[in-house]
Amino acid sequence: MTPGAGEVRVLRKPRGADLARAAEVARAALTYDQADAEALVERLATPPANRRWAALALDGGVAMASMSTADPAVGHVDLLAVHPGRQGRGLGRELLRAAEEWLRGQGARRVRLAGNPPCYAWPGIDVRYTPAACLAESLGYERFRTAWNMTADLDTGLDVDADVARLAKAGIEIRAAGRDRERVAAFAREHWNDAWAWEAANAAGLHHAERDGRVLAFAAWGARPSWFGPMGTAPEARGTGLGRVLLLRCLADMRAAGLRTAQIGWVGPLRFYSRAVGARAERVFWLYGRELA
C-alpha cells in the first residue's frame, strides 16, 4: 500500500453518493473527455445484465473493472482516473493493482486496458493521456493493437431527402427505430453479434432501413455517450447507399442534440467515412494487455 493512499474499497454496483464521487473524479481527471465524464461513469455502471463488474475507490481516485462475457479468462480495466490534486502519489498504480486482484478473483488470467464491448469508455488508452500509457508499460503491460476514432464536423449539409425519395421508389423505407428498436437489435444480433445488438437497444438514437417488413440496415449513436456507431448493412442491400443515408440521419440527430462534431468510434472503414462526410482520423488509442501471474 502506498503511504498516504488509504485503503482501496471495492464497490459492487455503486449507486448514489459513490457514483457521484466517481463521476466527480472522472470529470476532473479526464481533460479530453470532461463533457462526457459523468455520462461515461453512468454508462459503465449500467452494463449488460450478465456482466460481472466493480468499481474500486481511493480518496481522489477511481477504477472500474469488468469481466469479458466473450472470454471468461479475460478481464478489463474500463476506467482509471486520479484527481489532479492527488496525482503523483501512486494512487493510479495502487488502483490498477487492486483492479487486477479483483479480476484475478473473478477467474481472469489476462487483463486488458482496452474496451470491453459493448459497454466501454474507449477502445484503449488515448495516446494523449501519456501518463496512463507510461503507468501501463511500467507494470508490464504490452501494446497489442492500435485503434482510432474519426471526427465529423456537423456544420456541413446533412440533408438526405433526395436519397430517401430514391430509396422509396425501390421499396426501401428509412425510419427512426422507435417501437422497432427490439426488431432492429435482433437484426444486429443475427448479422453481427450480441454486442452490436446491445448497443442498438441502448443507443440514444437509432435509424434503420426496411423493405417489405424486413430490416436491411441500421445505424446508431449514443450507445457510448456522444459517439456514433455501430452501423451495418445486410449483404443483400450493400451498394444501395443505405449506409451513408443512415449515417447522415444519425449525424443530424447529434447536431440537433447540440453537438458540433461527432466522434465515429473504433473505426474500421476509414475510406467510407472520409468520402461520406469528410471525417478525419483524429483520436488514437493504444490497447494494452498482460498475463496475470
In short:
The chain has 293 residues and is an alpha+beta fold.
Overview of this protein structure:
- The chain has nine helices and 13 strands.
- Helices cover 33% and strands 29% of the residues.
- It has helices at 16-29, 37-44, 91-105, 130-138, 161-169, 181-191, 194-202, 242-256, 270-277; strands at 9-11, 53-58, 61-67, 74-82, 110-113, 125-126, 142-153, 173-176, 205-211, 214-221, 227-233, 261-264, 280-291.
- It has 293 residues and is of the alpha+beta class.
- It is elongated, with a radius of gyration of 20 Å.
- The longest helix has 15 residues, at 91-105.
- 45% of the residues are buried.
Keywords:
293 residues; Aminopeptidase; 13-stranded mixed beta sheet; elongated
Task: Summarize the helices and strands and which ones pair or pack.
Layout: E1 9-11, H1 16-29, H2 37-44, E2 53-58, E3 61-67, E4 74-82, H3 91-105, E5 110-113, E6 125-126, H4 130-138, E7 142-153, H5 161-169, E8 173-176, H6 181-191, H7 194-202, E9 205-211, E10 214-221, E11 227-233, H8 242-256, E12 261-264, H9 270-277, E13 280-291
Parallel strand pairs: 4-5, 11-12
Antiparallel strand pairs: 1-2, 2-3, 3-4, 5-13, 6-13, 7-12, 7-13, 8-9, 9-10, 10-11
